[in-house]
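From the thread on structure requests for the teaching lab: each student submitted one protein with a one-line request. Submission from student K.M.:

"Model SOGA family member 3 from Mustela putorius furo, tokens only."
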Amino acid sequence: DELRAEMEEMRDSYLEEDVYQLQELRRELDRAHKNCRILQYRLRKAEQKSLKVAETGQVDGELIRSLEQDLKVAKDVSVRLHHELETVEEKRAKAEDENESLRQQMIEVEISKQALQNELERLKESSLKRRGSRETYKEKKTFNQDDSTDLKCQLQFAKEEGSLMRKKMRKAP
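Reply posted by the TA:
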């Protein structure tokens, strides 16, 4: 029960971290969206000025300075967004690694729990054996062998599921 409570606490804290990270990513996305709208507005403005220059055939010095400034701002925003994207990607990778280690810990805890239960059953059987109850002992032994086989299968499925999840997480954007 204590192990189960610890596992649930770990899972809850991990979920809380995921919610926080999701909120942070949404805020970053909103900021990027605002920047894109600003850049779109400036682009339209520059296109209008370009059309004006094309119609009149005159190049305005102020227009050139404005376009250069808009280009500089666009480059700065692009670089900043690229850095933010790299940071977010690193956080995501770190969260995936943490998630995988927590899954492994959960599997290890389950395995140790099963091992402890098997040990308890074995101790009960040895106690029954000492009492001279041979038939009961044989039945329990077959039952434990079946349990052992089942646990090995469960462990194998858990390992396969873990590897599949790792593959999915690596492919996820």
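TA comment: The two ends are 37 Å apart (CA to CA). The chain has three helices and no strands.
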